[in-house]
Amino acid sequence: MSILPPNKPQTPIDTPRNFFIYGATMSGKSFLAERFPNPLFLNTDGNALANKAPSMQLRNVRNSDGTAKNTVIEQLDKIMLALQTENHSFETVIIDVIDDVTMLIEQAVCLKAKVDALADIPYGKGYATFNAVLQGMVMELKALPVNVIYISRVADVEDGDNHREIPSLKTKYYNVVNGNCDLVIHTQKIGERYLRTIKDKRKKYYASRIDDPKILRILKAISGAITPEPTKEKAGK
């Protein structure tokens, strides 16, 4: 039997699976993420047990002499292996927050090398190790048959007389993470209202091409996530 697909038209399936959510404290980031189906939180703020959804606390553990006992790199490696090989029912993995994870990875590299900063590791090996770990984590998460959500805090930027919020994740790290995401969502709380706005998207997403009703229901509640279906006249051009 040939490994090639049949030479005939197929119905496009285009469901976004990788998301970047950023917003100020108490703006509804984690609340939105928890609406995704069967979530697993990989938590960094010490509140893993405070979530209703199953959570795991990411951290670096030291021995009494200050050396590394169990690093976040080793912890992430075990989690990825379990998600890939074990029979589980999780449909969404949430990194809450990615800003802290990058700092934990940097700290782990330094602990292993017994230095204070990545720059103290000769020949740029510290930065190379960090980049390999971060990129490897992102690529492994993307390869999993689950939804992936990265949560980030915000930085306030002056734009003339106006202020605007941008992800607080460092630009070079944001480029790695966002380069593997389908939608970027900004959350805000204005008075008693919670706003969710699409700030970037990989492509246009049409409701008719999203095959997961749970994801479609969430995206319909976010301004700008779903593109109106093209008319027959436009579609035929």
Topology summary:
Elements: E1 18-23, H1 29-34, E2 39-43, E3 55-57, E4 61-62, E5 68-70, H2 72-85, E6 92-96, H3 98-113, H4 125-143, E7 147-152, E8 154-159, E9 162-167, H5 171-178, E10 183-190, E11 193-201, H6 213-220, H7 232-235
Parallel strand pairs: 1-7, 1-10, 2-3, 2-6, 6-7
Antiparallel strand pairs: 4-5, 8-9, 10-11
Helix pairs in contact: 2-4, 3-4
In words, what does this structure look like?
The protein has about 240 residues and is of the alpha/beta class. The protein is about 30% helix and about 25% strand. A 7-stranded mixed β-sheet has the order 3-2-6-7-1-10-11. Strands 4-5 form a two-stranded antiparallel sheet. The chain starts with 17 loop residues before the first strand and ends with a helix. About 30% of the residues are buried. The mean pLDDT is about 90.
Summarize the structure in short:
The chain is an alpha/beta fold. It contains 7 helices and 11 strands.
Summary tags:
NTP-binding protein; Rossmann fold; seven-stranded mixed β-sheet; 237 residues; alpha/beta
Strand content: 15-25%
In what order do the strands lie side by side in the largest sheet?
3-2-6-7-1-10-11
Q: Which CATH architecture is right?
A: 3-Layer(aba) Sandwich
State Rg: 20 Å
